[in-house]
Amino acid sequence: MHKINSEFSEKIKQYGAFDINACYNCGNCTAICPLSTEDNSFPRKMIRATILGLEDKINSSMDPWLCYYCGECSDTCPRDADPGGLMMALRRYQIRKFSLGKVADIFYNGFSSVFAWIILTLLAIGGIYIFGNYPDMEKINPLSMISLDTLHDGGIIAFIFLILLAFFQIYVMMKSVNGFKKKSFKFSESVKGFFDVLFKEVLAQKKFSECEDKSRYIAHLSLVWGFIGLFIATITVMMIDLFISTQSTLKIIPKIIGIVSGLPAIYGSVYFLYKRGKQKDNYSKYSHHTDWIFIILIFLAILSGYALDICRWSLFFKGYYVSFALHLIIVFELIITLPFTKFSHLMYRPVALWLAELKNKE
Ligand code: SF4
Ligand code: SF4
Questions:
Q1: Cβ-count burial of 245 within 10 angstroms (0-12 exposed, 13-18 middle, 19+ buried)?
Q2: CATH code for residues 101-361
Q3: How far apart are CA 3 and CA 20, in angstroms?
Q4: Which of 3, 212, 230, 300 has the fewest CB atoms inside 10 Å of its own CB, making it the most exposed?
Q5: 269 neighbors 300 (Cβ within 8 angstroms)
């Protein structure tokens, strides 16, 4: 028996679903959606649940994470109810639901999020001030501003924090998924399903490639691969510093990986910034403020990374320190808020795809 929350369709408006009550159940969206099957009328099942206020049904559904927001359903909706927008609004709603201590609420409320971002920025500046060395503006010294040891320690602490939080929130998500808790899947099936999702959906973005708008697929793939490259480059530098030497010439390898990977990541972020700014396509018409903050931070993180390298090579000392400080602040904000912001789709979506894969195999 599902509990009904008659105010749910109003409540969901704050997450970006403005027009879903206009739906008159014609079924066009289900007919066009590539994810729709005989057993799962995608996205109509979620539309009905929202309109009827079946909050626990929504909480236990992975559908919002399976949608790749191609916007085709919204294009064909005769009532401009924006079903694709609803799926994204439900994602935002679930990010809040799964979040530890409802911390995500802070970032999904316009007013409190302004304070949160200001406080995080001040914290990062304070961290640089407290843990930093006073840079020698007359020469570029990689140990100036903040020592590599401090950076590495901070990186390890942030990594442990993220892993623990990710496991906890993924556990909350899995617990809420309908049916999952009652079933036990074979270990071999689970492992196979995990690798299927990793290769097909994370690395190749197969479902995304079914989108009619191929440019969006390429931009998203560029962001994913760019990020993977930047992550590998960062971890490799840390390993060389920790286990070989901070002066090792081997660091040129991750440096090159970082420079090359930044290019597709810049392309992907500029593409999404441009599309959101233009508001022409259905999927970019109604951006939530959390979408904007996420993509702007990504763009600034990569840009400041390039800027500090360019300043260092051109011996522009002050530019180097300023861009380095900016880079540290932005990366700190991105990492520390990952489990609570749009960035968390990085962990929730693969898990949802994996659960769906297991369910399909059943
Ligand atoms: S196409 Fe529009 S009106 Fe028709 S079922 Fe989907 S959301 Fe409702
Ligand atoms: S946005 Fe695309 S994938 Fe998502 S429900 Fe609509 S048609 Fe389906």
A1: exposed
A2: 1.20.950
A3: 20
A4: 3
A5: no
Q: Report the residue count for the chain.
A: 362
Domain spans, the chain: 8-98, 101-361
The response to whether residue 72 sits with its C-beta less than 6 Å from ligand 2 reads: yes
- pLDDT tens by residue, the chain, 362 residues: 566 776 787 888 888 877 888 899 899 999 999 888 887 888 999 999 999 988 888 988 999 999 988 888 998 999 988 899 999 999 999 999 999 888 999 999 888 999 999 999 999 988 888 877 766 666 656 556 677 778 778 888 888 888 999 999 999 998 887 655 555 667 788 888 888 888 888 888 888 887 778 888 999 999 999 999 998 998 898 888 888 887 788 889 999 999 999 999 999 999 999 998 888 877 777 788 999 999 999 999 999 999 988 998 898 888 888 898 899 999 999 999 999 999 999 899 999 998 888 877 76
Distance CA 65, CA 91 (A): 7
CA of 20 to the centre of ligand 1 (A): 8
Ligand 1 atom nearest the C-alpha of 25 is 5
CATH code of the domain occupying 8-98 = 1.10.1060.10
233 within ligand 2 shell (Cβ under 6 A): no
Atom 5, ligand 2: which residue's CA is nearest?
43
Task: Write down the pTM of the prediction.
Answer: 0.87
Q: Is there an atom of ligand 2 within 6 Å of 84 CB?
A: yes
> Which residues lie below 8 Å from residue 260, measured CB to CB, with a gap of 6+?
229
